[in-house]
Design goal:
There is one protein chain. The protein contains 12 helices and 12 strands. With about 325 residues, the chain is of the alpha/beta class. It has 3 domains: about 10-55, 434 Repressor (Amino-terminal Domain); about 65-155 and about 295-320, Rossmann fold; about 165-290, 3-Layer(aba) Sandwich (Rossmann fold), CATH 3.40.50. Helix 7 links the parallel strand 3 (about 125-130) and strand 4 (about 145-150). Helix 1 crosses helix 2 (about 20-30), helix 6 packs parallel to helix 7 and helix 10 (about 225-235) crosses helix 11 (about 250-265). The chain starts with 9 loop residues before the first helix and ends in a 6-residue tail after the last strand.
Length: about 325
Amino acid sequence: MSGMERRPTLHDVAREARVSAKTVSRVLNGEGPVAAATRERVLAVVARLGFRPNLMARSIRTGGPDSTVGLVLPELGNPFFGALAGGVEEAVRGRGLTVLLGCSGGDRAREAEVVGAFLARRTSALLVVPAGGGETLAAAAGAGVPLVYLDRPGPGADCVVSSNRAGARAGVAHLVAAGHRRIGFLGDLPASMYTRRERLAGWREALAAAGLPAPDALVAGARTAAAAERAALALLALPEPPTALFASNVNAATGALLALGRSGRRDVALLSFDDLPLAEVLEPPLSAVAQDPALLGATAARLALARLDGDATPPRTETVATRLVLRPARP
């Protein structure tokens, strides 16, 4: 048996252990009475052969959930979402659960497809950065699967978000305290996106608290870093340009850095919502409102696990604090 090339099956284990396939199944699932000596013999053969149960097939046979958690993200290249996924994985690993990753591209139809695929294999829980709409909630509720929204709230389910408005307010207040009176806002698109709306509200609140105007001419948006670079250059070309830019996500900050670097504009301050890799080694260093995406993911996973354990309290929202990371210019 040790020279087998193919993957060992449950029937291989039964033959080697000199028991029925049903007895092997009972041992592996912890079901029904099995003599201690028989159990030890079966487990020894399982270890020797390297047998691994087909969890998906077992879930289909029994009608129960499998050992996975479905995580739906809008994009996979953004380091923020990579760290968020790491937080989810770290939190569920101790429960013997594996994370399945899907990408919606920020599209509702694609999100529905991914969620449907996860539910078809009876995933134990769903964690979703929502593209909008209530389709995911309806699908999860119909399957009896716990659902937690991440980064942006959704209808009728638990959600975990960052302190977007308070973080933006603190970042812009720092720019005001540094003497800036015209501060541009460079945000994500679409303008209806929850995180953009909250961070824009924080920008407005900080300016209002300082008695400063918040004209729409100082607000721009872009989906990609390249588009953000063009939007930043357009802000800087205004008749009364901003002396500082508040970039409300990684792509906006990257585009603003490219615009300032390529135009040689060292006289314009930049502060980012979301810390960038290597922000500390930039010249000048980039200050930022830092989120904790790993904690966002871990918190969402803990909510989902609590629901799996029977928590039937009403849906709740948990907010993860941001922190202002100030990096002064080098002498």
